[in-house]
Amino acid sequence: MAINLQKGQKIDLGLSKMTVGLGWNPNEGTGYDFDLDVSAIMIDENRFVPQDEFFVFYNNVDSPDSAVHHTGDDPSGGNSDGGDDESINVDLTRVDSKIQEILFVVTIHEAQPRRQNFGQVRDSYIRIIDELTGSEVCKYELGEDFSIETAIEFGRLYRRGGAWKFEASGVGYKEDLAFFLSKYFKGQIIK
Fold first, then answer.
1. In which element (H, E) is residue 177 found?
2. How far apart are CA 6 and CA 168, in angstroms?
3. Staple partner for 74: which of 8, 79, 104, 126, CB 3.0–4.6 Å?
4. How far is CA 157 from CA 58, 93, 128, 182, in A?
5. Beta-bridge partners for 62
């Protein structure tokens, strides 16, 4: 049975291959489609992205170590009927040794000019699926806890004692994707 994650909750996933899935239903009548994006930020021991290819999102779908793969952008939430609209596949056995943490964030594309927030999105969630069995391990319902936010730090995989653990962050922001990059990337950020 899947765990409904709580903020700050730490769990031992016990998985080496998993999928982080993001789903939502198109919200009609607001003038714009809701375009939610899931991204993975791979961080070294200094808490920085060592090179820009370790930031995996809809415009860079593979990490250089082939450990993290984004399956593609869904600009409207219409990719599936009741399932995941965007996904990131993670193979922890392939993660470069300099990466100590993989942070997962969900943002609403162009949320500020479109005046959108998670409270306006129907049935949005992010979850972790065991890639071997296809079963759901844990899940976060986004719309219930983040009614006015436009970006959410979902959680992080991190190395501890030679094993990978997961911590649910559950922190919402009124920011965009560039906000997260400014925290973890030293290079130029192009919006």
1. helix 177-184
2. 7
3. 79
4. 20, 13, 11, 20
5. 69
Is 56:64 a contact under the CB 8 Å cutoff?
Answer: no
Three-state secondary structure of 12-78 = CCCCCEEEEEEEEECCCCCCCCCCEEEEEEEEECCCCCCCHHHEEECCECECCCCCEEECCCCCCCC
In this structure, are strands 17-25 and 122-130 parallel, antiparallel, or unpaired?
Answer: antiparallel
User: Token pair for residue 175?
Assistant: 């920011």
**Element of type H or E holding 168:** strand 163-173
Residues in contact with 182: Cβ distance below 8 Å, sequence separation at least 6, in sequence order: 189
Whole-structure pTM value: 0.90
Where do the DSSP E strands lie in 109-149? 122-130, 136-141
Predicted confidence (pLDDT) per residue in 137-166, tens digit = 998 887 667 888 999 998 999 999 888 999
Q: Which two tokens stand for residue 34?
A: 């809701």
